[in-house]
Amino acid sequence: MSVLSLVTLIVLGLTAASPVKKWYPESVGANYFQTNGFDGNQLVASYILPDGRLVAGSAVWTAGNGSAGINDPAPFENHADPFYSSGSVIVSGQQVFAVNAGSDSFSVFDIDPLDPAQPKLNGTFSSGGEFPISLAASPEGKIVCVLNAGARNGFSCYGAGGDGWDHMSGWDRSFGLNLTTPPHGPVGNTPSQITFSSDMSSLIVAVKGQLPTDLNNPSGNMTGGWIATYTIGQNRTLAAEPVKRPAAIPFSINEDVDQKGVFFLSDVSSGFAAYNADADSAVVQGTIPAEGAVGQIRGVVACRLTVAGTILSSHSLGVNASGTDLSVFSGRGGDWMYINAPGYHSVHAFKISGPGKFDLFQRLSLTDMSSAVKATAGFAGQAVYYKTRW
Asked: Which domains does the chain have, with CATH numbers?
């Protein structure tokens, strides 16, 4: 055998032995969450196939660390959500954002439209406070805000510039809540989520109240939370003070897709709540029966005039599944919902067949995802990217 042939065989052997990334050109998008690793956080990306199934993509270091709140005693000692919030991972335009709660920062990744499950780290930015837990992007994608829930609580915002994201100091707001870093929870008067209204008229923040048993509640009295609405004026100005709607214990806030101006809250005190921003209505509580340790998905619809909610259906995630964050993807093949189930170390995929109708069709374990994933019990965040919008 010639030396050239031998060298060729060696090179071919090395090539064959090297790990090969699987690229799915038929994929319709990507799904993202974060590992929230204390010694190094990762953004985990999976391909979404035309039938809604998730397949392994990549795990990319965020250049930051995760963290977790301190669970108060029973019945919260096993609470699975490390941030007591929603929105720790979001997608806006061709970028995906993730908080680094242990580094007081957030990371920005660029998305390749042709290969969305291989995001590339663009940079990290200061959260402007401590223990960042939620992100929001304006409808046109020009502003991103990060919500802090530690001793230095409030939010900071960044505007899209020619070289990336520039701090908008005029949008910094402090809440002055009596919290620690990391905070006690899952209630404890902690911030829950930050979001923009779809018409870009306001920036909204949900903050939980306090239970009599909260360790940071010396009064021992039940106190309500609030929904803070900051008006956005012309020339991208933000109101100095918000309009506050009393609420109970809101964990998340989302605007109804079909009824603009109607907002839903997940509320641990009753199950859910809703309000109509256009009518300046009060927050109306709904009721979901207690289900013990069984995680539940609920389909809820609200009347725009009364904002009274009605439960359409429910589905168990399984005993001690501890369902946390979720995302929804709508494509030609149907509508799918992805839910983190930390108790099972997996992401559950559901087919949505109609209002309040959904069926489990996949449980993707962390061990079935990218081999680069450093699995953690406190993974968090859920967001999706569309290769093409239909």
From this structure: 64-332 (2.130.10.10)
